[in-house]
Amino acid sequence: MQKQLERIASHADEWTELRYHVRQSRTLAVRNGVLEASTSLRLTGVGVRVLSLGVFGFASTTDLSERGIREAVGAARSAARTSAPAKRDRIQRLAEAPLAQGRFPVDAADPLDAHTLEEKLALVLSVEEKLRSASPKVVSSTTSYDEIQDEKILVTSDGASAHLFDSKPSFRVIAVAREAASQAMGYETVGVTGGWSDLFSRRTADELVERAVRLAVDQLAAPPPEGGASVVVLDPELVGLLCHEAIGHTVEADIVLGGAVTAGKIGQEVASERVTMCDSGLSPYDAHAVGTLPVDDEGVVAGRTVIIERGILRSYLHNRETAARYGVAPTGNARAFVYSDNPIIRMRNTYIEPGEDDVAAVFAGVRRGFYLKGFGMSGEADSSAEFMFGVREARRITDGRIGELVRGVTISGNAFDVLRSVDAVGNDFAWEKGAGSCGKGQPAKVDAGGPHIRCTVTIGGRQE
Amino acid sequence: MKDTLIERCEAGVAALLRLGATDAEIYGQSARTMSATIEKHDLQMARMQEETAFGIRALVGDRIGFASTNDIEDLQRACREAVTLAKASPGDPHNALPEGTPVVPVEKLYDPESERFTADRVVERAIEMLCIAEAIDRRVILGDGEFVAKRGERAVANSRGVAAAERSSLFLYSALATAKDGDRVSNMDYQFGATRSVAGIDVEPIVRRASRNALDSLGAEPGRSSFRGPVLLSPQAVEPLLIALLLYQTNARNVLRRQSRWGDAVGHRVAAPALTVVDDGRLPGGVATSAFDREGVPHAPITVIEQGTLAVLLHNSYSARALAQPNTAHAAGSAQSVPGIGPTNLTILPGTASKESLLSEMRRGLLVTRFSGNLDPVSGDFSGVAKGAHLVENGRVTHAVSGTLIAGNAFECLENLSGISCEQEAVLNLTLPYVRVEGVSVTGR
Fold first, then answer.
1. Does the beta carbon of A261 lie under 8 angstroms from any beta carbon of chain B?
2. Nearest chain B Cα to A185, which residue?
3. How far is A140 from chain B (nearest CA, A)?
4. CB distance A86–B259 less than 8 Å?
5. pLDDT reading at A463 higher than 70
6. Is A164 left (phi over 0), alpha (psi -120 to 50) or beta?
């Protein structure tokens, strides 16, 4: 296939990108002792992008013959040319970058395929059994295992030719507890880039069960908080969420060009000087972050990009088109989810770098506030960096001590205001977003994390 | 000549039985999709895609396995994998496929004119959306938008006599508008529309609505007042608060999962008597219209909530069997997933009062255009930001407010529902009025 794609690309008279992609994913899900999913999904095809008359056209095909792929090239070229007369802002050039060549195996010492379906199923069934029997208050229990395995061949007419492999398993537990009329949910997830033994390297399945059940049960009697501005300590998962959802999207160069709040602010102070925020195709501080990728889907070698350096906005996230517009090097953020998706600017592993404060000191400075942990299922942020997130677990902090649980907490505000309010950054670090996906027209496996930080946010509560 | 989609499904079912399945189902879908996207207020890219996919369910006794592939050459391997998965899985007495029932085709699902809708016409419609936004106000930016033309076929066959196929065409369009005036950036507003026919395409109302809402929120002042009181929800805000709860609670799968409170509520009051909700999979021209569900069971109109009383739960064949209730033909999903449960064309029947008169009865309250937040569908608790919100005082809209949070409980909202407008809007497959609910917490900054 690689030779075939190279042959087609070598005959292209316009810039052409060919991406053969086989996605094999499997899901096993058990709920309340019942196997709800035992599924296997394979998607195979070639995505083609052609730059013609300053416009991209995209086509995808499942016909893997040379003729089929050439027809897709023709369709992509025709799509580009059809839209060219109406396109106002044409692409003058694509930024130069070191383009990947060679073979890129996945960093998985213990490959997923070395483990049988029966073994994976036995794990999912046994963990669900533990979840169900952990407390008489648990009325519903779900456990699921997902794996994504990719093989990609990426060839561009200007020299990329890479054969890439990827492997991303994830695991989830959800417990619903009930007592009288009160019902509450607790859930825990892990997800990595790597093999079977990497999946539970941060947290064992038993730890996931224990945490999910405790959260569901403890929340039953928890009161809602009073609303208003409050000093809070965010855990690494919420720090990662804030970095990704509320800041990260506003520095994606396509969003910036669309009028994001960060436009024209490179070099300006946008956060507390304690804050350094990055997006990386590597997995610093802790291996196997789920957004790890050696090469992006334009063939650019993916490294680390410093977005905010000690409070100063330093860089946006680019593909080859936007990098050329801004006169900078591409940052390796062009990604496509499956063969039929065209590459767009996406994050990878997004995080705040650890600071110098002991975690205990981060809490010690709070006289009255909240310790907020984890993402509470839904949320939203927009290009003005206004955000709203549900919080999975919220506890009061009184004179530096973590206390009573409250439920139904949301936080909101402007993410840059939140970053400006940061007055303590812990010296710890964790990746925490590995089981989820980011949606931007198409999904992407991304990770996010950081240390514990102290800042000020608006808490949504109830008015009585 | 190539086999038709239904013939391939039927051949696959026969192959599954030869591989050791005791029952089998194949759902096939093929589609040709053309789209033109808008980004940064400019035409971004035209795309063309053709794909055929098969979803395969193999039963071995009461054990079940599912595999999917988009490669016809890979169908044999996928069938073997489905049988392997079934054999490795524990059994479940409710696993079974539906019996074949005659399917009556629905009207206005496929427009032959769609075959002549070429890529350049797709691009033209996207350009039209940009021109409309510019004519409304130069401050409006369509940050995102899309026009999609799709036509295709779906077919399902099983070993119990199901064999159904239909063609459909669909045009979908969306616009995400932001208004920018100097340093001031508005909230974004997202609107979408859809039609089955070429003649039905009309992008203007959605661009106008998104632009107007974005412009309206440009002058918003930070909400200062906090109170507990009435909130008038726009159709787009009704969806994530009331419809999301209602669909979660009426989904029989969630009853089986013991996550719904409404498992024993059929025949009981779950909402104020003003609320009647119907679902019609055969609605002519509807976005979610089709003659049969994901399992090949014929669609029929049903009343879900009748004057506040729960009439039925929504079922697929699994949940109907497990709860010993009639199958309502709400098996949903694509060839790439096991059939779940979902609504078709869902409508909250309109009330008699106008939106204006509902507002005029509010002493102090909030008009919410869009809700950006969190609903826990198990407890009903919600909290989030009221987007495009306007403060209402003494029956009049006073001004737009930003950063205002609303919180409450959606079960209580259904009970405390105090008004339904006579105006309705289509929100894709939903047709919804403005709904006024009482006792919502409103928190300013």
1. yes
2. B378
3. 6
4. no
5. no
6. beta
Non-local CB neighbours of A338 within 8 Å, separated by 6+ positions:
A21, A23, A43, A45, A442
Name the residue among A87, A10, A455 with its Cα closest to residue A238: A455
Q: Is residue A438 a contact partner of residue A371, using CB atoms and an 8 Å limit?
A: no
Whether the predicted pLDDT of A139 surpasses 60: yes
- Return the H-helix or E-strand segment holding A75: helix A66-83
**Cβ–Cβ gap A410/B40 under 8 Å:** no
Contacts with A136 (C-beta within 8 Å, 6 or more apart), sequence order: none
Size of interface A-B (CB pairs under 8 A): 245
Listed by number, the residues of chain B in 85-104 with a beta carbon closer than 8 Å to a beta carbon of chain A are 85-86, 88-90, 92
Domain of residue A69, residue span: 2-219
What's the whole-model pTM score? 0.86
Residue span of the structural domain in which B241 resides: 220-290+301-314+341-445
Do A106 and A177 sit in the same domain of this protein?
A: yes
Q: Is the pLDDT of residue A260 over 90?
A: no
Q: Per-residue pLDDT tens for B62-82?
A: 999 999 999 988 999 999 999
A269 and A403 assigned to the same domain: yes
Q: Where are the alpha helices (DSSP H) in A327-429?
A: 359-364, 415-420
Tell me the per-residue pLDDT of B376-407, one tens digit each, with 9 for 90 and over.
Answer: 898 898 988 898 899 999 999 998 888 788 99
- How far does CA B7 lie from the centroid of its chain? 30
Give which of B33, B44, B49, B142 to mutate to test A binding, by max A Cβ within 10 Å: B49
Among A215-224, A253-262, B124-133, B197-206, which stretch is predicted with the lowest mean pLDDT? A253-262
Q: How many Cβ atoms from other residues are within 10 Å of residue A266's Cβ?
A: 16
Same domain, A214 and A233: no
- Give the strand pairing for A304-309 and A401-406: unpaired
Q: What is the 3-state secondary structure (H, E, C) of A207-241?
A: HHHHHHHHHHHHHCCCCCCCCEEEEEEECHHHHHH
CB A193 within 8 A of CB A289: yes
Contacts of B98 by beta carbon, 8 Å cutoff, 6+ apart = B158, B160, B162, B295, B296, B297, B317, B327
Residue B321 lies in a domain: no
The verdict on a CB contact (< 8 Å) between A461 and B407 is: yes
B77-81 long-range contacts (CB < 8 A, ≥24 apart) are B78/A40, B78/A42, B78/B54, B79/B12, B79/B15, B79/B16, B79/B19, B80/B19, B81/A40
